[in-house]
Amino acid sequence: MPEKYREEIEEILKHAEEAMPKERATSAGKRPNTSSGRSSNLLSRFSSGGGLKISAGKLMLASFALLLLALILGASGLASPVILVVAGLVLFVIAYALLFVRPTSTAGYEKRWRGRLIEDNLSLWERFKRWLRG
User: Could you write out the DSSP letters of every residue in 57-68?
Assistant: First the structure.
Protein backbone atom coordinates (compact mmCIF):
# COMPACT_ATOMS: atom_id res chain seq x y z
CA MET A 1 0.00 0.00 0.00
CA PRO A 2 2.73 2.58 0.80
CA GLU A 3 4.32 1.92 -2.60
CA LYS A 4 1.09 3.01 -4.27
CA TYR A 5 1.16 6.35 -2.45
CA ARG A 6 4.85 6.85 -3.20
CA GLU A 7 4.24 6.34 -6.93
CA GLU A 8 1.29 8.70 -6.88
CA ILE A 9 3.30 11.39 -5.06
CA GLU A 10 6.18 11.02 -7.53
CA GLU A 11 3.74 11.38 -10.41
CA ILE A 12 2.22 14.52 -8.88
CA LEU A 13 5.68 16.03 -8.32
CA LYS A 14 6.69 15.23 -11.89
CA HIS A 15 3.58 16.99 -13.23
CA ALA A 16 4.18 19.94 -10.91
CA GLU A 17 7.75 20.36 -12.18
CA GLU A 18 6.54 20.24 -15.77
CA ALA A 19 3.84 22.83 -15.11
CA MET A 20 6.17 25.20 -13.21
CA PRO A 21 7.93 27.83 -15.38
CA LYS A 22 11.70 27.42 -15.74
CA GLU A 23 12.55 30.67 -13.93
CA ARG A 24 10.42 29.71 -10.98
CA ALA A 25 11.72 26.14 -10.87
CA THR A 26 15.31 27.31 -10.53
CA SER A 27 14.56 29.87 -7.84
CA ALA A 28 12.02 27.74 -5.94
CA GLY A 29 14.72 25.76 -4.14
CA LYS A 30 16.74 28.84 -3.19
CA ARG A 31 15.51 31.25 -0.55
CA PRO A 32 17.54 34.40 0.07
CA ASN A 33 18.73 34.68 3.65
CA THR A 34 19.63 38.34 3.52
CA SER A 35 17.30 41.28 3.50
CA SER A 36 18.94 42.57 0.31
CA GLY A 37 17.93 39.33 -1.44
CA ARG A 38 14.37 39.84 -0.31
CA SER A 39 14.31 43.43 -1.50
CA SER A 40 15.72 42.53 -4.92
CA ASN A 41 13.06 39.83 -5.23
CA LEU A 42 10.42 42.36 -4.23
CA LEU A 43 11.70 44.87 -6.77
CA SER A 44 11.65 42.27 -9.52
CA ARG A 45 8.04 41.43 -8.63
CA PHE A 46 7.03 45.08 -8.98
CA SER A 47 8.89 45.57 -12.23
CA SER A 48 7.43 42.42 -13.78
CA GLY A 49 3.88 43.57 -13.12
CA GLY A 50 3.21 41.12 -10.30
CA GLY A 51 3.36 43.77 -7.61
CA LEU A 52 0.57 45.38 -5.71
CA LYS A 53 -2.92 44.31 -6.64
CA ILE A 54 -4.98 47.37 -5.92
CA SER A 55 -8.59 47.06 -6.90
CA ALA A 56 -11.00 49.87 -7.61
CA GLY A 57 -13.02 48.93 -4.55
CA LYS A 58 -10.03 49.30 -2.24
CA LEU A 59 -9.17 52.68 -3.75
CA MET A 60 -12.75 53.87 -3.27
CA LEU A 61 -12.65 52.67 0.31
CA ALA A 62 -9.42 54.62 0.87
CA SER A 63 -10.92 57.73 -0.73
CA PHE A 64 -13.97 57.53 1.55
CA ALA A 65 -11.67 57.10 4.54
CA LEU A 66 -9.75 60.24 3.55
CA LEU A 67 -12.96 62.20 3.08
CA LEU A 68 -14.26 61.01 6.46
CA LEU A 69 -10.96 61.97 8.10
CA ALA A 70 -11.17 65.39 6.49
CA LEU A 71 -14.72 65.78 7.79
CA ILE A 72 -13.66 64.84 11.32
CA LEU A 73 -10.61 67.13 11.29
CA GLY A 74 -12.63 70.00 9.81
CA ALA A 75 -15.36 69.67 12.43
CA SER A 76 -12.86 69.59 15.29
CA GLY A 77 -10.96 72.62 13.97
CA LEU A 78 -7.56 70.93 14.42
CA ALA A 79 -6.37 71.38 10.85
CA SER A 80 -7.46 72.54 7.44
CA PRO A 81 -8.78 69.46 5.63
CA VAL A 82 -8.38 70.84 2.09
CA ILE A 83 -5.47 68.56 1.19
CA LEU A 84 -7.30 65.49 2.48
CA VAL A 85 -10.44 66.40 0.53
CA VAL A 86 -8.47 66.89 -2.68
CA ALA A 87 -6.57 63.62 -2.15
CA GLY A 88 -9.81 61.77 -1.45
CA LEU A 89 -11.48 63.14 -4.56
CA VAL A 90 -8.45 62.31 -6.72
CA LEU A 91 -8.39 58.75 -5.37
CA PHE A 92 -12.11 58.40 -6.04
CA VAL A 93 -11.71 59.56 -9.66
CA ILE A 94 -8.80 57.14 -10.18
CA ALA A 95 -10.82 54.28 -8.69
CA TYR A 96 -13.79 55.11 -10.88
CA ALA A 97 -11.55 55.12 -13.96
CA LEU A 98 -10.10 51.75 -12.94
CA LEU A 99 -13.58 50.25 -13.09
CA PHE A 100 -13.54 50.84 -16.84
CA VAL A 101 -9.88 50.12 -17.50
CA ARG A 102 -9.71 46.85 -15.53
CA PRO A 103 -13.20 45.44 -15.23
CA THR A 104 -13.50 42.55 -12.83
CA SER A 105 -14.87 39.34 -14.18
CA THR A 106 -18.27 38.42 -12.82
CA ALA A 107 -17.95 34.78 -13.80
CA GLY A 108 -16.07 33.00 -11.05
CA TYR A 109 -14.07 29.85 -11.45
CA GLU A 110 -14.59 26.50 -9.84
CA LYS A 111 -11.82 24.93 -7.82
CA ARG A 112 -11.44 21.30 -8.79
CA TRP A 113 -9.18 18.49 -7.73
CA ARG A 114 -9.19 15.24 -9.68
CA GLY A 115 -12.37 16.29 -11.40
CA ARG A 116 -14.26 16.91 -8.17
CA LEU A 117 -15.49 20.31 -7.07
CA ILE A 118 -13.80 21.76 -3.98
CA GLU A 119 -16.01 24.02 -1.89
CA ASP A 120 -14.52 26.66 0.35
CA ASN A 121 -16.31 26.98 3.66
CA LEU A 122 -14.58 30.15 4.78
CA SER A 123 -15.72 32.23 7.69
CA LEU A 124 -16.54 35.90 7.28
CA TRP A 125 -13.21 36.86 8.90
CA GLU A 126 -11.20 34.59 6.55
CA ARG A 127 -12.99 36.04 3.51
CA PHE A 128 -12.22 39.56 4.77
CA LYS A 129 -8.52 38.68 5.21
CA ARG A 130 -8.42 37.18 1.71
CA TRP A 131 -10.09 40.33 0.33
CA LEU A 132 -7.45 42.53 1.99
CA ARG A 133 -4.63 40.47 0.48
CA GLY A 134 -6.16 40.82 -2.97
Answer: HHHHHHHHHHHH
For residue 21, name the pLDDT band (cuts at 50, 70, 90).
low
User: What pTM was estimated for this model as a whole?
Assistant: 0.43
Long-range CB contact pairs, 112-120, < 8 A, 24+: none
Q: What tens digit of pLDDT does each residue of 93-118 get?
A: 999 888 888 766 655 667 778 877 77
Report the DSSP pairing between strands 116-117 and 112-113.
antiparallel
Element spanning 90, H or E: helix 82-101
Indicate the angle between helix axes 56-76 and 82-101, nearest 10 degrees: 170
In angstroms, the CA 73 to CA 28 distance is 49
Question: What is the per-residue pLDDT across 72-91, written as a single tens digit (0 to 9) for each?
Answer: 888 887 777 888 889 999 99
Ranges of each domain in the chain: 1-51, 53-104+122-134
